[in-house]
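Data availability excerpt. The first of two example chains:
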Amino acid sequence: MNQASSDPFVFLTLGKKSKKTKTQDEDNKKPVWNETVLIERTDSDESAVLFWILDEGNKNAILGYTALSVYPAIFSKLNEKYHLPLFFGNSIIGELILHMSFKSK
């Protein structure tokens, strides 16, 4: 991530819904968020989950971002591990690794 010292958190959105993780304040260059985030998806929602890594200690400056299409995961209905490239501008600066599952109602 693009950081010397930061207090990063993940802000994720799916359509108009959004969630925020806890802030990592240990100045860790490779922060780990071991959290479960639930977002209920409707048919009218966007087709991708957007992930923004932001720095709470620097007015929520963008440290990196990525996206994941929800359609492959919805159809597989499996617990999947994803390795997503983390971008800053046009450069890949790292990787966001997440476990994601989709459940039907």
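And the second chain:
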Amino acid sequence: MFPVSEPIIKASNRSYRYGDGLFETMRLSYGNIILGKYHFSRLFDSLALLKFVLPANFTREKIEHDIIQLAHLNNCTNRGQDPFVCIKRETDPSAESE
């Protein structure tokens, strides 16, 4: 989660400039992610395919907790109010190996 004062999408954002990122839309029902097992499996498989380097605390449990917490904070826990998760890369992966 980011502070309101911090821009979320910057002009230098690689994922929006080159399509180098991914998104997942999940359905919530009364504070639970429907078919969460499948969403998170697809999410982590896609991150591996795109060769994202993930921080140690980037786990299913952490992401699920943050999504549900954010939904509660925004009063969006009922069906029909689905979170959209967008994961972007800050740096060029080919530059990291140089």
